[in-house]
Amino acid sequence: MESVFNNEYELSSLHESISAASARNGGFRSRSGEDKVTPATHAVKLYKLVAVIIGVICVLQAALNISFCLVLYLKAGNKTLTEEVDELRISLEGSEQRSIKEQRMGQIEQTD
After folding, report:
1. Which of these ranges, 21-30, 84-93, 94-103, has the smallest mean pLDDT?
2. Higher pLDDT residue, 23 or 20?
3. Transmembrane residues, as ranges (predicted)?
């Protein structure tokens, strides 16, 4: 019977020493179970808040990227790349011919 009491005493003293060491080393819970407000807890909460905000921003950015890609795809009229290149080439050639004509007209006007 005496050994049972000794074991219980050893366990209770061990529990007390662990609780005291935890309290000395900045444990987050007191003996009553209430949260201690320390600068470390504020920092952890701040980091969690920042992480959540950055996560929300990343999700919004991804949604915007996808929606802009869809809008551009629909505006292009589902043309292939070769069709777009041909249209750009035709418009570029037309603008070059116009600029050549304008230069010639300018030279003719200067000679008159």
Report:
1. 21-30
2. 20
3. 49-74
Query: Helix, strand or coil for residue 112?
Result: coil
Write down the residue that tokens 């292009």 correspond to.
76
Distance CA(36)–CA(42), nearest Å, equals 11
Mean pLDDT along residues 11-19: 69
Q: What are phi and psi of 71, to 5 degrees?
A: -65, -45
The token pair at 39 is 């600068």
CA gap 66, 74 in Å, rounded: 12
**Spatial distance between the Cα atoms of 90 and 101, rounded to a whole number of angstroms:** 17
pLDDT value for 59: 98
Count the alpha carbons within 13 Å of 46 in the hemisphere toward its beta carbon: 6
pLDDT value, residue 1: 46
